[in-house]
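Lay summary. Proteins are chains of building blocks that fold into shapes, and those shapes determine what they do. In this project we predict the shape from the chain. Here is one chain we studied, written as its sequence of building blocks.
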Amino acid sequence: MYDVIIEHPAIDDRTYSADGPGQLRDTVWGIARAQGKPVTDDLAMIIEVGALRSACDITGEGVLKVHDITVTVREAEPCEGHQGEDSVLLGGPEFCDGSCKPRTPFRKPQLLDLACALDDAELDATGGCGCCGLEAGQMCAGCGKCNCRTHETCVRPAAEQG
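And here is the predicted shape, written in a compact code that computers can read:
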């Protein structure tokens, strides 16, 4: 089992889990799609994800740059309760199977969440408002505010004569 950490300069880091190579590959594909840049060379991506997984298995951590997002993969941290023989003597598994610690896989809802967060961050960075989805040029003509604020006191400029 792997912890998959997604880092992007404009959003908070997010951590997901992948229970094996297939789910890890699906996560990386989804991260590319969330950025609006789908994977065009499947074989190259399979090789890159394989190298990422191998690096994690060998050194404990692997890093892959997927467009603007840095994906860091680490071996999932085991829980406290499944270590040692006491757990086994009490009827528990010898190793943590992940069922005792909530782990979020990267699926369609997480992909949509990431895509929206990236879109909102891009709007914010370009002078718009990610919360209400307005670009910089769509703000109120009178006060320059977005739809998140009220505009009762706003005086709109007279229409330009042309």
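What the prediction tells us: Strands lie at 2-8, 11-18, 61-66, 69-75.
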